[in-house]
Amino acid sequence: KDRLFGGLKKTSSKLTDNITGLVTKAKLDTEDLDEIEDALIASDLGPAMAAQIREKIAAGRFEKGIDAEGIRQIVEDEIAAVLAPVAEPLDIDAFPRPQVILVIGVNGSGKTTTIAKLAHLFLEQDYGVMLAAGDTFRAAAIGQLKVWADRIGVPIVTGPEGGDAAGVVFDAVKRATAEGIDVLIVDTAGRLQNKRELMDELAKIRRVLGRLNPEAPHDVVLVLDATTGQNALSQIEIFKEVANVTGLVMTKLDGSARGGILVAAAKQFGLPIHAIGVGETIDDLRPFNAQDLARAISG
Ligand code: GDP
């Protein structure tokens, strides 16, 4: 918890510094409300969320006036209300097994690390886990995933660099099925530079999966780097076009001043948020808890 609160400190202080300086008065005027709204927007909460919170504060009846803590509480409540419906851990419940989780996202977003963290989490829950190195585009990606797999102690299916990603996925599903694996986590190439190619590749993986198991992929998880701010939002938009995104994991919330982007994403897209990344080690994946996050972001 400390890591999350510590990490989001930068986001929240950006917000509270602005608010604290502002309110010790009994009644807020338009100028005060403008300032609050600006502070909310500066915290990456997004204009829609900022306007909603402003309305809420403006509409409030405060017998003895409202102070910074009162405002902070409203901000927390409003954020929690937006986050609560999207807080949804990944469920391993697919039968017949394996459940196939496709992981997508641009390079550098923390995709590989998140796959390792998820694998570790499922192992701890006593599921049989296997990885598939479906990012055949980068040799480094295959190597890196293999290092994680060995470290955690899960089997991994790889193919040659530059090879056919769908082929790797095909082999992986067959092997996972034969070995009674519960969860197969599939890495994919994150080449947003060439949307057409990426779309074709994902479509091909889907076709291959569908041939082996009509329900697969059961989950398509988009990994986003919170520190990229607004960029993360446009990535959701683009990936929604190229893949049927079913949920999100947001990484690097430790030490990011842009934690508000999580709220903006929830507000704008309403996609389930499965977990958050708060560091580089295997244990640094947190379940997405709406109230905790709302508290951490609001200060
Ligand atoms: P990929 O290219 O999307 O597979 O990204 P990686 O998993 O290789 O991660 C890119 C960098 O971000 C690495 O240095 C990771 O250690 C780091 N990283 C990933 N997730 C987190 C996180 O939640 N917090 C922090 N601080 N770093 C992270």
Automatic annotation (TrEMBL):
GO biological process: SRP-dependent cotranslational protein targeting to membrane
UniProt keyword annotation of Cell membrane present: yes
Domain AAA+ ATPase: 97-248
Record's subcellular location: Cell inner membrane; Cell membrane; Cytoplasm
Keywords for the protein's UniProt record, in alphabetical order: Cell membrane, Cytoplasm, GTP-binding, Hydrolase, Membrane, Nucleotide-binding, Receptor
Boundaries of every SRP54-type proteins GTP-binding domain copy: 98-299
Signal peptide extent: none
Amino-acid positions noted as binding GTP in the UniProt annotation, renumbered to this chain: 105-112, 187-191, 251-254
EC number: 3.6.5.4
KW Transferase (keyword) present: no
Primary location class: membrane
Catalyzed chemical reaction(s): GTP + H2O = GDP + phosphate + H(+)
Xref: Pfam families: SRP54, SRP54_N
GO cellular component, one term: cytoplasm
Molecular-function annotations in GO: GTP binding; GTPase activity; signal recognition particle binding
PANTHER family in alphabetical order: SIGNAL RECOGNITION PARTICLE RECEPTOR SUBUNIT ALPHA
Subunit details: Part of the signal recognition particle protein translocation system, which is composed of SRP and FtsY. SRP is a ribonucleoprotein composed of Ffh and a 4.5S RNA molecule.
Family affiliation: Belongs to the GTP-binding SRP family. FtsY subfamily.
Record-given protein name: Signal recognition particle receptor FtsY
Native source species: Sphingorhabdus lacus
Designated gene of the protein: ftsY
